[in-house]
């Protein structure tokens, strides 16, 4: 009955590889997000999708490409992985109705680039 | 099963009061515990991180304590201000490196 789920939980890979992280929400929400948590534990928003359309695209390298096949899924694809990409990536979703639009977070995917 | 519970779900207090938010967790073998703040329509802001070996962390008017044996953490906010109004989330990381989130406490500080 997990509300927001992410796969995989851990990802260890070599520099230069391409990898994807998947996110699914079963809350019927319209908006989904990807965040990166750096080594100092600060969360920074990367992307936001509303009804499969990109609405926020913060300054991230274009090696990062979000893909939303449907409203319940927002996947994050990363090309040519670099050491600095090592972090925990969180997916979140919200009803997308503005105002007090509470976000619900997944458990995170710990990415380690060697 | 590892679970995180936050009580109360909502809290409304007059400006200037000191207040305590509670977070409890079911398995004491934690890696760390974090407190976040979520403002309406915005993302999360990290407030404090307490490692399993620590008992408390302080940042400005915020103080977070950790008691692993009882499975509890408290977030103390001194001299509350209207700008403190937000939802406060507790998240626990166990040795499997996954965060389990509490449902949050919605705090309203009345001027």
Helix/strand-derived category of chain A reads: mainly beta
Q: Report on the biggest sheet of chain A.
A: 7 strands, mixed
Helix content of chain B: under 10%
State the assembly state of the protein chains: heterodimer
Largest interface in this structure = A-B, 24 and 20 residues
Strand content of chain A: over 45%
Tell me what you see in this structure.
The complex is a heterodimer of chains A (114) and B (111). With 114 residues, chain A is an all-beta fold. Chain A is 0% helix and 55% strand. In chain A, strands 2, 4, 5, 6, 9, 10 and 11 form a 7-stranded mixed sheet that branches. A 4-stranded antiparallel sheet of chain A has the order 1-3-8-7, with no helix packed on it. In chain A, a hairpin with a 5-residue loop joins strand 4 and strand 5 (43-50). Chain A is globular. The relative contact order of chain A is 0.33. Chain B has strands spanning 4-7, 10-14, 19-25, 30-38, 44-51, 56-59, 62-67, 72-77, 86-94, 99-101, 105-110. In chain B, a hairpin with a 5-residue loop joins strand 4 (30-38) and strand 5. In chain B, strands 2, 4, 5, 9, 10 and 11 form a 6-stranded mixed sheet that branches. Helix content of chain B is 0%, strand content 60%. The chains are: A mainly beta (114), B mainly beta (111). Chain A binds chain B through residues 9-10, 33, 35, 37, 40-43, 45, 88, 90, 92, 98-105, 107-108, 110, and chain B through 34, 36, 38, 40-41, 43-46, 49, 87, 89, 91, 96-101, 104.
